[in-house]
Write a structure and sequence with these properties.
The structure is a single chain. The protein is mainly alpha-helical and 310 residues long. It folds into 2 domains: 73 residues, no CATH class; 211 residues, MetI-like fold (Orthogonal Bundle). The protein is built from 14 helices and no strands. Helix 6 packs across helix 8, helix 7 crosses helix 8 and helix 9 packs antiparallel against helix 10. The radius of gyration is 24 Å and the shape is globular. The model has no long low-confidence stretch (mean pLDDT 89).
Length: 310
Amino acid sequence: MIGYIVRRLLYTIPLVLGVALIIFIIFHVVTPSPAYMLLGRSATAEDIALMERQLGLHRPLPVQFVDFLRQIVTFDYGYSFQTHEPIGEIIKRGLIPSLFLTVPAFFGGTLLGILLGIVCAFFHNSIVDKGIVALSVMGMSISSLALILIGQYFLAFHWNIFPISGYEPGFSAVRYLLLPWLIWISMAVGSDVRFYRTVMMNEIRQDYVRTAYAKGLPTRLVLFRHVLANALIPIITRVVIALPFLYTGSLLLENFFAIPGLGNLQVGAILHNDWPVIKAVTMVGALLYIGANLASDILYAFVDPRVQLK
């Protein structure tokens, strides 16, 4: 197992270098000069050249790429054009609100989706199955923006059950996050139910399930120890691949509920042409995605002995 993990880690090195090169080309070659974006259209060539020298963009591209690799390793992405703060500190400050928003809602929605998927598979083609599927399709058909506006108007403004918006650090944040959590789960559970229903139906029709029932095992034991255990491969794939995107939170939810997370940071950086922040968030997201793929490969071997560690 250790040898396999080491090999997989070594495989990720050229992958990280390739991703870093692509992001570097996009931000340093394809897009306009950050100096031009900072100074505006009225800037002269001399002004742009002076700004590029101040930003270090006058150096040869290979030197800039090596400096970018150093930033990735040290997590020192320089300073924001807009606030002049260290970008690493900005990301760390926005990370906690984003994770507070996304992690409980994501895992709550995933757990609910798995449970409803098992129920649908067990009661296949019954009124229970058809009713849950119909509600899931209905939920998928409503736009996330509509759910946010409906939730804010009725549950927050009209009925005064939740705060309309805002955020406080620490445990006090829970009362502000309850409504965003509810909306997140409402947005995600429809597609989750349809996916996990298909996965569970594929497993529940296998011979080992009929054998388990023939041995007299109770339904609860068959569903949760055998069916669910054998369905972990697609569940892990869906969950682990989605995890890297949680650190940015939800752009819509963070903006509508005034949550100071990384989603708000991204929107503000794009609106203000904050080039270093956009580049840093893009690279961090890519690294997390690569790490999630690595984690999923390793988890496969733990949950399914048929997976060979080669």
